UniProtKB/TrEMBL annotation:
Domain of life of the source: Bacteria
Alphabetical list of Pfam families matching this protein: IspA
UniProt source species: Tardiphaga alba
Protein name: Intracellular septation protein
Alphabetic keyword roster: Cell membrane, Membrane, Transmembrane, Transmembrane helix
Amino acid sequence: MKDVFAKLGQDFFSTVLFLVLYLITGDVVLATCVAIAGAVAQFIRARIKGEKLDVMTYASLALVIVLGGATLLTNDPRFVLAKPSIGHFAIGAIMLRKGWMLRYLPPIVSETIPEYVTIAGYAWAALMFALGAGTIGVAMSGDMKLWAFYVSVVLMGAKVAAFGLQYVVFRILVGRRLRAAAVSVP
């Protein structure tokens, strides 16, 4: 679990850096420059340490530089504000693969209710697409405080709520299925 959070921290480092610096200073240009510098420094550090870099690392760096550069050239923060949506769309596309979720679940769930796991996987993909679209909508408004709230509270809150709902539903479904199987065994 520690590895998962460390990886997420690496993937969203520049976005978090941008958000924190903007909230402290209110300066979009400064926050964008520091986010770009942070992403480049993170990349260089990983290369020096000989860490294996995956496609997401290169994609994230490219997005920070391109969208951050567009923000700096146009003095329009909406470019950098839209960056998290691209990640959500990419993750949503990956989640469209049938059975992607099976490896993350305990065997009792994947063996007892596999059809519901597939449905839940598609529901997660739909959630990622909806959150990505919401991010673009909020970014297009240009309201930095609304964007900061959306990215830090709504995006995380929606995922936590979905995880909690999934947990409860899976527990109920597994319990029902196991009770029905116990009753049908003579």
